[in-house]
Amino acid sequence: MKFYDSFDCIDGKSYIVVNNEIATEISQSFIDMTEYSKEELLNKNINELFSILKIGPSIEIENVDGEKEYFLFTKSLDARFVNITVNEDTFEKVYVFCEKKNLRLDVKLPAVEALLSHDVLGIAIFSAPDITLLRANQTYLDFFDKPFDRRENSIGKKMHEIISGWIGSSSEDIWRNVLLTQKPAYIDEYMFKFERGVTYWEVSLAPVFENGIFKYCIEITTDITEKVLNRKKLEEQAKVIEQQNEQLKMQANLLNFSREAILAWRLDGDIIYWNKGAEEKYGYSKEEAIGYNGHELLKTVFPIDINNIKSILLREELWSGEIEHTRKDGSKLIVETRFQLIVDEKGFQTILETNRDITERKKIEEELRIQNQIIKQQKEQLEIIIENISEGLTVVDKNGNYIMLNKKVAKYTKNTTLLGRALEKVGESLEAGERYYTETGEIITLDDFPSMKVIRGEKVENQMVVVKHGDNNIYFNFNATPVFDDMGEVRLGIIICRDVTERVLYEKHIKEQKELLEKAMEMKDDFLSVISHEFRTPLNVINTAIQTLNFVYADQMTDKIKDYMRTIKQNTSRQLRLVNNLLDITRANAGSIKINKKNIDIVFLTKAITESVYEYASRKKVRITFVSKLAKKTIGIDDEKYERIILNLLSNAIKFTPAGKSIVVSMNSLKGNICVKVKDNGIGIPQDKIDIIFEKFGQVDSSLSRQAEGTGIGLSLVKKFVEALGGSITVESTFGKGTTFIILLPDEMVLEEQNEKLMVDFMNDNRLVQITNVEFSDIYL
């Protein structure tokens, strides 16, 4: 019976049972309410499940308020209004969902539902105060940019998630005012920019209250973009007509209202006429200018002497050029000017000056000149770079003619006269006897050469070409990219080649050295295997002799002899442990670790292994505790390898844990795996040493090895054994505070021909005691 079976509150209700934050059970009532299948919701994290259901508003899973009204969305995106209560014990939580009767939107707001179904006006219902979209028709959704014009991408989302740029906009201000005042709002012409462009809306926002509380807000929206744009177009046309009328008025008095500066002066320089264009250009009024010497007023800078200009006018009546003036505010003005001599019937001479402002044009011209100069410099720099890069660079046109090549290419080809020549002629420029091959020794034809591929529109990436010249091979790496015109035809081909001979020869040398090293390592492993087997024979003889002496002559041995016998026994076990580790290492390197999996209760097995070392721990005044969230768990495991793994970790933990501290062995289920942790409060491992502890012969510190002797191959074997069992092992450690080894093993069983091995046989088997004695043989030296 589960703890929640007795809760009256869930009988016939919609509920979810959660274990370790994972949904393990879902009631049929909940399935019926949400329209999701059990397969879509079971075994999901509670956070992910709440996200799928889009539960709101602003729910905190750890602080669910049973009195508060929440909403969730069905698979068909209909809103349901519920109260959520949470019941829990140590390992499980039950989330109970009670849907409020007659609170569905189509029941509470039938008139709005009718408008929604007509789909003429844009209608939407939002929750208050968090502005979550609860329901909307397609006409309303069509206002939004993709993908939020579809229900599945917008229902259940807040306004700022649907409309980019909503936060900080005037629309947010309107909504905030409605939420604050709880009064309706109407906007007859609201502008908003979407990705598709500017739109104009007619919007009404109407609050809806329940029991005096502002619960919903209904938005009725009409797209008036076309109407507004037509109105604006008419307004712009009216402005154009008005401007045209103004131009007609200006043409009636051209000289006075010309935007060009027009003035007249006598030969002595005094101004006698000053139009409005001159007033605007120079900042001087007519009253300020007339009667004043124009050249002194405007501080005119002429390209030639003013007297020469007067002479030209007297002779030719016309002069034009560029001059510089100074405005009243002191700013400079460059004008394109025209001086014309006018003589009336009385012989009175006047000079008419017409000035066109070309300041901006001259500025642009100067900027263009500077920019062209920069481009020229950049081009020169680029040419220098291209000529001196380490790679060979070639450019060919669509017909296969060389139109550019740098010095490197010329060096490779021994020729600098390739420009304008076709690819087929390249062979003439290369030294006689050269052939082209792939890395595997196949001949590369002209059609397969990178230069020919690129003019066919193919892209070449890292094509290796071997040039055989006599007894020498030169290795080139080619990359080529076609450049296409607007019609999709090849316009140019850019080819880059690099001489990689040194790199290739170096890699071949390294490969040969690696193969020699692997052979040497293999010979070393064979030697260690033979030596280790040879060591085991005398060790077994010594162990047999010790057992015989202890069994037959125990009463005849003095205490001193017994102490020597224990020392011999312990050192024999240490030697046997070393030999076993060496044998296992050589087997692991050869990939021949034999795994014999049987279906065994791993909880019982782990507990038995932990209890077998209590005596060793107690002698060192270290406390060992076994904790498991699983009462029983049967999986496929090689019990002998698993014993070696746990005993090695416990041996290390006891070695490096000071007296008075503790070691905890814990177990639990984790995402399809069985998680076993061995945690101690020992000396810990420095962060810069964690990566080497699983390496063969890797030790954290020589000072530590003096405290507890060892070869450093124990954890290497542990890692290989765990991986051979299909699992993984990691370590977490804080130097000076302790270390935790974490083992993950697959939660799966294997097919067995015989019945599962009984744990009672394991307890009666003396093998665990023998393995423990061997693994802990060096703990007290």
Mind explaining what this structure looks like?
- This protein has 781 residues and is of the alpha+beta class.
- It has six domains: 3-99, Beta-Lactamase (2-Layer Sandwich), CATH 3.30.450; 105-228, 2-Layer Sandwich (Beta-Lactamase); 254-357, PAS domain (Beta-Lactamase, 2-Layer Sandwich); 389-499, Beta-Lactamase (2-Layer Sandwich), CATH 3.30.450.20; 507-580, no CATH class; 593-775, 2-Layer Sandwich (Heat Shock Protein 90).
- The protein is built from 28 helices and 28 strands.
- Strand 20 and strand 21 (490-499) form a beta hairpin.
- The longest helix is centred in the last third of the chain and has 52 residues, at 501-552.
- The chain is flat.
- The protein starts with 13 loop residues before the first strand and ends in a 6-residue tail after the last helix.
- The relative contact order is 0.04.
- The model is unreliable at 248-252, 425-433, 698-712 and 755-764 (pLDDT under 50).
- Its EC number is 2.7.13.3.
- InterPro entries: HATPase_C_sf, HATPase_dom, His_kinase_dom, HisK_dim/P_dom, HisK_dim/P_sf, PAC, PAS, PAS-assoc_C.
Query: So what's the overall shape?
Result: flat
**What is the SS-derived class?**
alpha+beta
Helix content: 25-40%
Overall radius of gyration: 46 Å
Give the domain tally. 6
Instruction: Provide the residue-averaged pLDDT.
Output: 79
- CATH homologous superfamily title of the largest domain: Histidine kinase-like ATPase, C-terminal domain
Main sheet: strand order: 17-16-21-20-19-18
Residue stretches low in confidence (pLDDT < 50, at least 5 long) are: 248-252, 425-433, 698-712, 755-764
Please give the largest β-sheet.
Answer: 6 strands, antiparallel
Quote the distance from N terminus to C terminus: 53 Å
- Helix count? 28
Give the quaternary arrangement of the chains: single chain
Estimate what percentage of residues fall within beta strands. 25-35%
Which CATH class of the largest domain applies here? Alpha Beta
The CATH architecture classification of the largest domain is 2-Layer Sandwich
